[in-house]
Amino acid sequence: MFKRLRNDFQLSIITLMGIIGVLGITPYAAYRLLHNNLLVGVADVVIVLSTLSAVIYAWRTGDTEKPGLYLACVFSVAATLIAINLGVNGLFWIYPLILFNFFMVSPGKAIAATLLVLAGLVGHALREPGSVFESNYQMISFLVTNAMAGVLTFIFAYRTRIQREQLQLLAIQDPLTGARNRRAMNDELKIVASSKRRHGRSYGVLAMDLDHFKQINDLHGHQAGDQVLIDYAKLIRSCSRQEDRLFRFGGEEFLLLLPDTDAEGLETAAQNLLKEVRSGLRSPGGPVTVSIGGAILHAEEPWSHWLQRADQCLYQAKKEGRDRAIIASLTSLAATQALT
User: Fold this and answer.
1) Which residue, of 119, 157, 202, 258, has the fewest CB within 10 Å?
2) Are the CB atoms for 77 and 121 separated by under 8 Å?
3) Phi first, then psi: what are they for 297, rounded to 5°?
4) Would you give the DSSP letter of residue 298?
């Protein structure tokens, strides 16, 4: 449980806000219901129950976007009703609401929610003077302090979101080529294998290794080798489909994941990549070629076996002279299963 909270920022925020909300609001709900303040008491109960249901939903499904948006809407409406009913004493709940919204939803949606809440309070105060604010001066002071709190919270939440996205990208991206790294590859292949079992969707992989790459580094230096890798990744992405995903899992070893691809399509893709690399990739010593091994994911096959079959085909392509592609057949699947 704690590992999941460490790895999922939004889930940890929803859980923390849920705990604070339930523990902080439940006593108020009980007190107001006991003192016949039914409207505010019912609003408090709705907040507590909504919080519990949203947290449970987020934990069960892993979806934090919908519960966050749901809670932002419920809390905004409830806080507005409470402030209108309690007057000045209810305005204090608006400040934590601003903080909560900016962490639950995108900055744009949080701004919209905050403006709607303030518009609702001001509109009611203008229709019924004295119901929310004791004077216009107090209303203006409230709006100014809310604007200051909103701006500061927006800056903090926006920078936090950007930094979190950058850290997540760095965790799965190869810094040299921009391809996804081995960690991302393993996670993606696990998901793909699960999708195959549940929905029967077809997937193929192409394991690729640049031929004689060590000679480029030895003869022309690592800077030249790095440039070849950068150019290679760009070339592969340019001649692949948008839904295909490229991973770098070794020095000059890459993997291309192709969704919705059968054996014939995988063979066609491999031959096209061979041709494009042969004609479009250069090093200081001349053209660079690639060897490719491919495999289609079969039903109930573990992702590691699938990757192993593609790697065996890559080894065979290297052994037979390089600059060629070999795609695994059904017989190779039986042979791999017999070894394990």
Assistant:
1) 119
2) no
3) -70, 130
4) P
The structural domains of the chain, ordered by start, are 2-172 (no CATH), 182-339 (3.30.70.270)
Task: Please work out, in degrees rounded to the nearest 5, the angle formed at the alpha carbon of residue 70 by the alpha carbons of 169 and 82.
Answer: 130
Kindly give the pairing relationship between strand 290-296 and strand 325-327. parallel
115 CB-near residues (< 8 Å, 6+ apart): none
pLDDT in tens, 24-82: 889 988 988 898 888 888 888 888 898 899 899 988 888 888 888 888 898 898 889 88
**Secondary structure of residue 262 in the 3-state scheme:** coil
- pTM of this prediction? 0.61
- Which of 91, 99, 92, 90 lies closest to 71 in space, CA to CA? 99
What is d(CA 153, CA 150) in angstroms, rounded to the nearest whole number? 5
> Which residues have C-beta within 8 Å of that of residue 11, sequence separation ≥ 6?
4, 5, 58, 59, 62, 64
The total number of residues shown for the chain amounts to 340
Tokens 């996804």 belong to residue = 180
Single-letter code of the amino acid located at 220 = H
